[in-house]
Amino acid sequence: DENDDETTTNRSSIEEFYHAERVLPNGDYYTGQWYDNFPHGHGKYLWTDGCMYIGEWYNGKTMGSGKFGWPSGATYEGEFKSGYMDGIGTYTGPSGDAYKGQWVMNLKHGHGVKSFANGDAYDGEWRRGLQEGQGKYQWSDGSYYVGEWKNGTICGKGSFVWTNGNRYDGVWDEGFPRGNGTYKWDDGSFY
């Protein structure tokens, strides 16, 4: 009977989903839910190089919410897809730099905020791991730039404001003012 075969298959699939603790052939260690010879569900994976992941798995790949840690002390906590940091997440580096925002295939991509250990911060758009599009970079001394970025560099229309109140509004190329622009001093005079 056709229905008997379907019931047997479903029963078999349910029975294959279980909790496992395994030392894998490559020396890595996994404890958690296991299905069809792969981590599947919630689990903890320890690599021989000292990396660790705790979170959700799907067919042997990190998928869903989780936390990844490196031996350096760096961590990423957030969303994973197909084994990549992908979605919304927070990366904290070993030196104290931190990025909170959108990721695509392990790269900052979309809107995000990066805080540097030295007190500087960038809030804006990212593409393929670099600042790209609109963004604001604030230095720890209080000066800041608001405007366009390209390939991680100030490039396009934007404004730079120094801590003394002086300001430059105009076009930038590779981090330097280029072409037409206006320089204003804090007393209101301009060039």
From TrEMBL:
GO annotations of cellular component type: membrane
Top-level taxon of the source organism: Eukaryota
Pfam family, one: MORN
UniProt key word Coiled coil: no
The protein's name in its UniProt record: AT2G41210-like protein
Annotated keywords: Repeat
InterPro entries reported for this sequence: MORN
UniProt KW Repeat keyword: yes
Membrane-spanning ranges: none
